[in-house]
Write a structure and sequence with these properties.
Length: about 140
């Protein structure tokens, strides 16, 4: 019986293509040498590389401030891929707040037939634009 040798990065790339982890599968391609991290900011997960600009939900920071995002779930570097359980220990992403703006208006209309009940509301979500400055590996 022959034995097949597979390195850990290949196994991880195959695992991330599963339908349950479909969102991360597009980012884990074997043979890439760039550094990126999957982070959580504002209740959503984002793929962050140095120099990228991310649009996230509003964070409690002023425009121009340095932000340290410590919830890093996956860290891919030249030396391999680190998957957190649930987070990668000691890893963080440093970013700068570039802008704060509002998204498009969303119209909400509630209606109950035959009851004369109609409510019309609107909402505009506040977003922030972050520039990724540095990805710091864990210990």
């Amino acid at each position: 019986m022959s034995r097949i040798l597979v390195d850990n990065s290949a196994v991880l790339a195959i695992m991330l293509w599963l339908p349950t982890l479909r969102g991360l599968g597009a980012y884990c391609v074997m043979g890439r040498k760039d550094v990126y991290a999957v982070i959580r900011a504002g209740g959503h997960q984002y793929k962050a590389s140095v120099g990228d600009e991310l649009i996230v939900e509003r964070l409690p920071y002023a425009v121009g401030a340095q932000v340290e995002l410590g919830e890093v779930y996956l860290l891919a570097a030249e030396d391999g891929v680190s998957v957190g359980h649930p987070r990668v220990d000691g890893a963080m992403v440093r970013a700068t707040v570039l802008d704060e703006f509002q998204g498009p208006k969303i119209h909400i209309f509630k209606y109950k037939p035959k009851e004369r009940y109609r409510r019309r509301m609107g909402h505009r979500q506040t977003y922030m634009r972050l520039r990724i400055d540095e990805i710091v590996k864990g210990a």
